Amino acid sequence: MKKEIEPTTSIYPLPVIMVTTHDEKGNDNIMTAAWTTNISSERPSIGIIMGGNSLSFKNIKQTRDFIINIPGQGLLKEIDFCGENHGNKIDKFKETGLTKIEASIIGSKLIAECPINFECRLRDIYPMDSANLIVGEVVKVHMDENILTDEGKVDFFKLNPVVYSQKTYYSIKEGVAIRGFSGKK
Amino acid sequence: MKKEIEPTTSIYPLPVIMVTTHDEKGNDNIMTAAWTTNISSERPSIGIIMGGNSLSFKNIKQTRDFIINIPGQGLLKEIDFCGENHGNKIDKFKETGLTKIEASIIGSKLIAECPINFECRLRDIYPMDSANLIVGEVVKVHMDENILTDEGKVDFFKLNPVVYSQKTYYSIKEGVAIRGFSGKK
Lengths: 185, 185
Known about the structure:
The structure is a homodimer of 185-residue chains. Chain A is mainly β. Chain A has one domain: Electron Transport, Fmn-binding Protein, Chain A (Pnp Oxidase, Chain A). Chain A is 15% helix and 45% strand. Chain A has helices spanning 55-63, 76-84, 92-96, 156-159; strands at residues 2-5, 14-15, 17-22, 28-33, 36-40, 45-51, 65-70, 100-102, 109-111, 116-128, 131-144, 162-165, 168-178. The radius of gyration of chain A is 17 Å and the shape is globular. Chains A and B meet through β1, β2, β5, β6 and α2 of A and β1, β2, β5, β6 and α2 of B.
């Protein structure tokens, strides 16, 4: 039996990412986000929803670049901390002890402990009510060699990503099927 | 040791959804997608990336509504089938045996077997290279009573959602932490 409820927004679940940005003076920040998706494979681009008052949004408007860092389950505490605290009050790299590495192309810093990092240049900002969709073009990707298979692909369980839904962080259980198993008509 | 690779688009992992649409003549279609995210909670909205040549995109442009249906693991075969096949050749409701139900407000049909359905009115289309970001405003939500807790919240493991990455469908293992567990500064 279906029950009707009033409009709400809840795609179940969404992936947890850590976004690093910097301001013009070189101050770095880390933000945890889950409202994110791939946008284009043609000109590789990723989108993130960000509040208009967030420090990360201000940084991106100023310096027009950011990094999407994909954390594994080993960083749960840091993920949560960077989502619960504001960067205008504290230095999140310092507070978490996460290691910053210079990027290859842009000014934002990589989080060394995140096994995958996407360097992005701001492509466009789309206002969405009081938030914004930030679309970044991926200009360089970094991957830890120890999460890759011999063929150079990501070993999903070595990455061990985190997904988020209804204020809870979850882990992934198992690959249940390969795309295409149902056959084509 | 980090390895640099060329630009690619890969948020790990993304949620699997089934999108239902209809054309002006009342023909219904189902599309499987994973490039999706929440867009706004203020005016509840969801975004999906869709190829410009897809039947679902044409339908949405014509009739300006669609439904995001959230499938559970029990629908893996139907999920895969609706992702692998094109709606201009076959009737996917008929081929999969999925049950269509009239929506409350819009013309697209609910998939009865999906425990959650978001009725959406087209809010805007943003071209992204040869694809498009479709943003829909959620105007009604339907939930199966048997996936809800006594408090009316979604029981995540009764929903048992599917996530997707690198051509593989995955299931969710366990809640590993509650947001806020790291404390605030």
